[in-house]
Specification:
Strand content: under 5%
Order of helices and strands: HHEEHHHHH
Radius of gyration: 63 Å
Distance between the termini: 130 Å
Strand order of the largest sheet: 1-2
Shape: rod-shaped
């Protein structure tokens, strides 16, 4: 279509150029210069119109055909652009729909992940509570075993202080004194045993230094302190069961009181026949 319009336009342009030229030459050949002058102004105008009008009409036709061709090209281009725009719009809508689906999937995954995190946090808290409870139970069991061992050591110290038997009406002797044959002395029950030993010991270092203490009692006291300190090292500083709690118990106060005693003299040999009092 565009090639045809160009061919027609070229033909009309040549016609507009050649027809006036051919008419002028023909008039010049037939009438000569005198014929042209004899036409007058009206003839000149008519001659000019006759010569220029075909070329003008040809140019107008060329312009009209060119405009039609360009408009057809523009219409095709706009149609193609519209189709491309429609395709892009459809592709964009598909992308938006896919993005919405992916967003919904991500939201669902996020919700599931948050649920799993909440479940994991709850399980971790439960595990921590169980671990704390297990630690407390283990600590209580260790304290029961330590309390039994401490009770055995305190029983030995009490026997060293008061002996096994004593005569009727005889009072308690000094620390480490063995009782004579007579009424059997009964051990104090429960916490009274630790309180009895605690009342027996002075509360100041000066008074403790003046006290005559049997070496066997000192060694039992060192054993008591070693057992208590070994357990205390496994107790945390804070928590429901902490070191301060055990230090405030009667066993802890007795440990502090026994710390005032002198250190054991292991170079001193104790006669074997006197070990029965322990």
């Amino acid at each position: 279509m565009r090639l045809l319009a160009r061919a027609i336009g070229l033909f009309l342009l040549l016609l507009a150029l050649l027809v006036p030229l051919a008419g002028a030459l023909l008039l010049w050949a037939e009438a000569g210069p005198e014929g042209l002058i004899a036409l007058g102004p009206a003839g000149w105008v008519a001659l000019a119109i006759g010569l220029v009008l075909p070329g003008g009409l040809g140019l107008l036709a060329l312009i009209w055909l060119t405009q039609r061709a360009e408009l057809a090209v523009m219409r095709d281009a706009l149609q193609r652009q519209g189709e491309a725009g429609d395709s892009r719009a459809l592709a964009l809508q598909a992308l938006l729909a896919e993005a919405r689906e992916q967003t919904a999937i991500l939201q669902e995954q996020t919700r599931l992940l948050l649920g799993q995190l909440a479940t994991g946090r709850g399980q971790a808290e439960t595990l921590q509570a169980l671990m704390a409870e297990t630690r407390l139970e283990r600590l209580v069991a260790e304290w029961d075993m330590t309390a039994r061992e401490l009770a055995a050591v305190m029983a030995a110290m009490w026997r060293l202080a008061f002996g096994w038997r004593r005569a009727e009406g005889e009072g308690a002797g000094a620390l480490g004194g063995a009782g004579e044959a007579g009424t059997e002395l009964a051990l104090p029950a429960g916490p009274e045993l630790a309180l009895a030993i605690l009342r027996l010991l002075p509360a100041s270092a000066a008074e403790m230094a003046r006290l005559d203490v049997d070496e066997r009692f000192v060694r039992q006291a060192a054993h008591y302190r070693a057992v208590f300190r070994r357990f205390l090292d496994r107790v945390p500083e804070t928590g429901p069961l902490n070191r301060g709690l055990f230090r405030d118990m009667v066993q802890g106060r007795l440990d502090s009181r026994l710390a005032l005693l002198p250190r054991p003299n292991h170079a001193l040999v104790i006669p074997p026949d006197t070990l029965a009092a322990e």
